[in-house]
């Protein structure tokens, strides 16, 4: 019985050492008071990626970053201005559906580069959502600022083979200039320009 127990212990120890060797560790010598024994240990030094948790990179909301950048330009109206426009256009329904959609009633149709695409698509609204109703309030305001103040530019890549057949560049820059605020009926008829709105609200 003792012999079988001893054999089982030796087999178990051998399997453990073999498993540790699979990690690619080098044997390390440890001293005891009676004998010197060579054993295998798993350390974090020879295979740090296996044992070490890597910190995750911080994530940023692209729309919030773009809006913050826009706000640095004095030509950009404050968020409160767009909230007033949305109050007039849709009663602040940022999920409003239809052809003139979202809180700001931005015209949407088709998809980017379609010949009949809407304003939402022309000014990069699809960077955030296919339809204004699927975009956040911040994202809709970013697109509104692009339409009115900043314009929108992006690099477009066509299929190289198709571009060659059509005789057009495979890569080109899509560049839409800003068109001001008068595309919004509520701006023309009720809210007024950002300057007029700010003057009324400064009193």
Mind explaining what this structure looks like?
With 203 residues, this protein is an alpha+beta fold. The protein folds into two domains: 2-51, no CATH class; 64-202, Orthogonal Bundle (Lysozyme), CATH 1.10.530. The chain has nine helices and six strands; from the N terminus they run αββαααββααβαβαα. It has a two-stranded antiparallel ribbon. The protein has a two-stranded antiparallel ribbon with strand order 3-4. Strand 3 and strand 4 (106-107) form a beta hairpin. Helix 3 (62-71) crosses helix 6 and helix 4 crosses helix 8. The longest helix has 20 residues, at 2-21. The radius of gyration is 32 Å and the shape is globular. The protein starts with a helix and ends with a helix. The model is unreliable at 4-14 and 16-45 (pLDDT under 50).
| Strand count | 6
> Which CATH class of the largest domain applies here?
Mainly Alpha
Largest sheet: 2 strands, antiparallel
Radius of gyration: 32 Å
Mean pLDDT: 81
Strand order of the largest sheet: 1-2
CATH architecture name of the largest domain: Orthogonal Bundle
Q: Please write the string of helix (H) and strand (E) elements.
A: HEEHHHEEHHEHEHH
**Shape label:** globular
CATH topology of the largest domain: Lysozyme
Number of helices: 9
The structural domain count equals: 2
Structural class: alpha+beta
Low-confidence stretches: 4-14, 16-45
Into which percentage range does the β-strand content fall? 5-15%
Helix content: 40-55%
The span between the termini is 99 Å
């Amino acid at each position: 019985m003792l012999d079988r127990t001893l054999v089982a212990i030796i087999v178990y120890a051998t399997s453990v050492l073999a498993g540790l060797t699979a990690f690619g560790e080098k044997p390390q010598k440890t001293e005891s008071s009676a004998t010197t024994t060579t054993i295998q240990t798993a350390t974090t030094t020879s295979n740090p990626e296996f044992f070490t948790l890597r910190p995750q990179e911080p994530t940023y909301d692209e729309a919030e970053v773009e809006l913050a950048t826009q706000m640095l330009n004095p030509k950009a109206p404050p968020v409160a201005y767009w909230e007033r426009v949305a109050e007039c256009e849709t009663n602040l329904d940022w999920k409003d559906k239809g052809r003139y959609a979202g809180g700001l009633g931005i015209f949407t149709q088709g998809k980017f580069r379609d010949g009949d695409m809407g304003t939402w698509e022309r000014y990069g609204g699809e960077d955030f959502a296919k339809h204004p109703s699927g975009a956040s309030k911040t994202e809709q305001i970013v697109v509104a600022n692009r339409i009115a103040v900043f314009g929108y530019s992006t690099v477009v890549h066509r299929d190289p083979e198709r571009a060659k057949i059509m005789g057009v560049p495979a890569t080109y820059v899509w560049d839409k200039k800003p068109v001001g605020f008068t595309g919004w009926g509520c701006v023309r008829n009720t809210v007024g320009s950002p300057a007029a709105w700010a003057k009324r609200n400064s009193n």
